[in-house]
Amino acid sequence: MPRRLWLLLAPVITLLASCAPQVPTSSSRSSGEFTLPSAVAPPDPGVDPPAVRLLAPGGPPLPVSARPQGQLAGWAESMSDELNIPRAALQAYGYAQQLIGENSPNCGLSWSVLAGIGAVESSHGRYGGARLDETGRPSIPVIGLPLDGSTGVKRIPDTDGGRFDGDQVWDRAVGPLQFIPSTWRDWAYDADGDGVADPQDIDDAAVAAGNYLCSVGGDLRDPDRFWKALLTYNESRSYGQEVLDYADYYGKASHRIPLEG
Fold it and tell me: Which Gene3D superfamilies does the entry mention (predicted)?
């Protein structure tokens, strides 16, 4: 069962009433509840994914079988069960780290940071009983509450004609990393080369989120810049600490797992 249910509000990416996942370890699986240790920025970056061939932008659409994130199948398989992160999500986070590292080498973005965000926002695309398929899309679209200005909720009238969130009156955050439609329009990225930039696709969302963090934070290995990025991503300090705690846990735990390929 999820540890807790809560709502967080952000100017850029908004958390729906989301369930953060348990992060079991071998010692805690039998006891059920697991409390994350409080972490200090920056989080442990985790075990680097093996080098992959990065997709060149502007090419013809690729079939699912050629999804570049799939190159990290062995790396993700080694850690998925222990970290309780879907394989497709780990592949997306690891690929995003490498792609952004190539394009923004001074940012220092790690897959563990993206995993921390994915955990808090939607349990890596598993909110509401959804599961990620092999293309990185949830079986049930992840769509947040209407941002109608009610108590504790920002007021954002519709900006996408319901294209992404199905709501022609109010905006709603969408996808595993919970992009507001207007923000997705600015940061949309087709990371898997299928010809579509889709916020429900965790491959695309992971790169878009990483690009945003690097643009506002600069070097995320610097504690102050790390916090600047997170607090721009979401103004809540408690949200930022939750992301940091998950990121640091995932990073440290990955060093204890025998990795493959």
Answer: 1.10.530.10
